[in-house]
Specification:
Elements: H1 12-23, H2 29-36, H3 40-52, E1 72-80, H4 85-96, E2 101-106, E3 113-119, H5 122-131, E4 139-146
Antiparallel strand pairs: 1-3, 1-4, 2-3
Length: about 160
Amino acid sequence: MSKTLFDGGFDQLDHAILKELQHDGRISVADLARKIHLSPPAVHQRIKRLEREGVIRQYVALLDRKAAGYDLLCFIRVSIQPHTKAQMNEFQTAMQELNAVLECYHTAGSYDLLLKVAVRTHHDLEQFISEHLMTISGVERIETSLVLNEMKSTTALKLK
């Protein structure tokens, strides 16, 4: 089992660095060092260690979905049959190839999978479901919920 932020090897300075980077991933090492009262070389070394340990996975630019032309956000629940590893692998492979799928989770409950999907129009959603989801073998049931209003959306994890 890999280390986590809470079970060793990481301290409050690491948490402070991560909090700032979650808020602004483009902050310079010098500005970050000033904010947490540590030298720039020490901050740089800690960031590199957090990257090596896999705590920091990647740096990205978060785009405004609507400004990029993707007006429709929805969650799609999918049931598949049979419940086999091969069937789950086939579905996962198919999801990796679909740009509309932002996130895909294997879940417990009434449905097997939960997809977060962004498309431009209702027509694009209908096309995504009929030409992509419904063509995957084993898809038994699909239920779609349209997002009317994003009340909270964040990528930041709460740290101590």
